[in-house]
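S2.1 Query sequence (dihydroorotate oxidase (fumarate))
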Amino acid sequence: MTDISIAATIGNEKYEYPFINAAGVYDETAAQMNEILDSQAGGVTTKSATLVSRPGNPLPRYFNTELGSINSMGLPNQGLDYYLNYIEETNTDKPIDLSISGTSMADNLKALKKVQSSNFNGLTELNLSCPNVIGKPQVGYDYDAIEDTLAAVFEFFTKPLGLKLPPYFDLQQYDAVASILNKYPLTYINAINSVGNGLVVDAETESVVIKPKGGFGGIGGTYIKPVALANVRAFRQRLNPEIKIIGTGGVSTGKDAFELILCGADIVEVGTILAKEGPAVFERLDTELKAIMEAKGYQKLSDFRGKLKEYQE
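Output structure tokens follow.
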């Protein structure tokens, strides 16, 4: 497998390996992010940062299930300055992507203005899809809010910008969102965030398994892979070709990642499986993906990226 390259590029960043962590998983502290950078990950995404630090929702707020996980974290993070300082002080050849997730449009604009005036020139990801901030709706389901946010952001923001999107479930939703996104110079989208406001029940205790929001939380893991595949495929068919796609959701094997890339993903993020296995998972995923490519005769990701076939008799 020595001749096989699994490198990929998004914006001004090159990823030697196509797997990174999903924002919010194994990335709240410098120590955790360093573990990812020291692994066979392609890079690291910071915890979704708010202007000031947040403790997040009450515990317990995360629960592993047989097929995935449920969480209602509520954006616990160290604050934007912490992550900007971490990026500036960290000596690495791997990309460090900065995730931003304010609890209001005003806060998002303030955060992005701080990024714009900083020395950071990597990928910034604006999270429009957190389902777990109590009392706050997901901007990604409000088309007017998406349009208003992007119009305001691109009045001043000139650095590479991506959007973390919620899962969509209707073809008309893909059409409507893509028509908005195509108006703006986005570097990429990230599809998808967790499927919001699911519920996991413990039959033994006859109760929910997490405390916030009466047990409602974002669903991740194997449950949501078909939704992630659909979103990546639908947006690759609709977005301008210069807008790249990060595929996220349900990846626990190299085969899962192969399918997302086949649907059009440029790189892949992992969440639930990283929480379960730790950063050693990246080496396994790289090896499994390369093995599939070798068996199929592919030398690089572009040999099959976005080339999903229609059903054939």
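The chain has a mean pLDDT of 97. The domain at 8-56+74-194+221-303 is CATH 3.20.20.70 (TIM Barrel).
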